[in-house]
Amino acid sequence: MRITGVFSLKHFALYFVAYLIDTPFVMSFNNPETIRKVLSTSRNIALVGASAKSIRPSNYVMKFLLDNGYNVVPVNPGLEGQELHGKVVYGSLSSIPKDVHIDMVDIFRNSEAVPPIVDEAISIGAKCIWMQSGVINETAAEKAKEAGLEVVMDACPKIEIPRLNISGPP
User: Fold this and answer.
1) Which of 67, 73, 105, 106 could connect to 121 by a Cys-Cys bridge, CB 3.0–4.6 Å?
2) What is the reported pTM?
């Protein structure tokens, strides 16, 4: 079993138990072909939990995605109306202009905050929910899948794009 990314002891223990009992657990949401499809077909990414602090992962992942040709729409109610990397920050997914069709919602929030974000993503017609490394919410993931969204959980596009040799959006 190969484990990549940033993991806490709790996450390692969950993966190890899943491995021992041969349960797919989070890995079932992270099929490499699904990840490749999402990152190759998504153009507009709403990044929920965007931070103005350059040392925060949400900040440098946003910069990485922009540098790789994606249109990133930062979402953070505390920064609404400000700019991050030249992009206007919105307070919620539903406040993003309707003419910007969001393909992927990249979530940089704690696992407990995911369900209402998934509900909002479904309501705006997003195509994918991406929960960042360390963000795991099986119930929200199942709800998104039932609504027809692709789901990636406990992974980071900054890691997956070079790992899968993805050239960027269409």
Assistant:
1) 105
2) 0.84
